[in-house]
What does this fold into?
Amino acid sequence: MEDKNWKGHLALLVAYFIFGLNTPLSKYVLAHGEISALALTFYRFAGAALLFWMLSLWTKRETVPWRDILLLFLASLFGIFINQLSFVAGLSVTSPIDASVITTLGPVMTMILASVFLKEPITGKKITGVLIGAAGAFLLIFHGNAGRLNIHSLEGNLLCMLSCASFALYLTLFKKLIVRYRVVTLMKWMFLFATLCSLPFCWQDTVRVDYAALPAGIYLRIAYVVVMATFCSYFLIPVGQKFLRPTIVSMYNYLQPLVSSLVAVVLGMDAFGWVKSAATLLIFLGVYVVIQSKSRAQMEKMSSQDEC
It folds into this structure.
């Protein structure tokens, strides 16, 4: 599978580039005031579920036993429902800077959980790469917010940390399940379960919206959030998971603040100075160092060769 790793890297690059563009567009929708974060979350879940089930009509049907249906439900809880809903809830009571800083803990959590559940070694290269990438993300975040950090939003910060931990568990606990099925099969079930679980939390906010009063620009941005930042991105992420280790997958989280910053530069809202140049270099260097670290299978192969 090593010679196909480029497919995983390409899929994750595109997915997290789309995620980076999603940040300013989602903020625009929420700033309009008519649509709440819970309503937008429900659009994402329900819209992606509908699109994946429609796509499944045109792809080869896979039989999923009841045991794996249960596993897909659990994967949906950790990878989509808890991850997305706790982040939205946390963001509503904490600052964007706090939330952005906490998301940099994702690769660290994933590295630790992968060592526990998948017996992946925590090597010096892996630790170094994670820290280098985190340094780049921190540099971008703090520079863009003039170094301000709100230390009083404990509840929101804990919810954002729960979001990171939830996705880290998804990446490590369900690796075998993800490899076993096609992407469409995985995502149609996971988004269906996420939609059903979100109904008690999101339905009231969703039906409260005055849809006739919404301008066309809001609908276009919602379409991007649902089709691109949810359907397409979550189609691509499992491709990366099939070919790459969980820690490498989680490292691509660091691209989101980078892409958001680049979008701000292109739109004339910011300038690409030495800080962004240094942060960009650190993020890509961190990803490269983690990629170069040895996996469990590689270390076992080297050990067996030494014994011979």
In short: The mean pLDDT is 80.
